[in-house]
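HUMAN: Please help interpret these tokens:
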Amino acid sequence: MSRLIFVNLPVADLARSNAFYEAIGARKNEQFSDHTATCMVFSETISVMLLTHDKFRQFTPKAIADAKTTSEVLICLSADSREAVDDMTNKAGAAGGVVDPGPKQDYGFMYGRSFEDPDGHIWEIMWMDVAAAAEAMGGGATGA
């Protein structure tokens, strides 16, 4: 079985966040959604749980970071092409996100951009030609 990832994000306005994530291509999973949380699905293995602050506080004793002023995490999603990177980033901007809070990354074999969601969470969208990347990094070495 493939491992699944559920990224849990605190959000100030659940409805606004739902609309934003739908606009960039995620779909709502009603089975795991209610008035305090929404499960937004990017793929069979990647979901984002958008949680109201009250709901998020049930899972941690720590203060909720203000992602607009504090860096909490950088989330990176892969894309199938350079065009797909631009498409998702542009959709994020049209839906009210901040486009390219960090510099674009273009290394030929790898291309990435970023956006902030309405709560300030930064997402990187990255495309990579794996074969060209392996060649550029030392003749085909893979692994971490």
Remarks:
- DSSP finds four helices and nine strands in the chain.
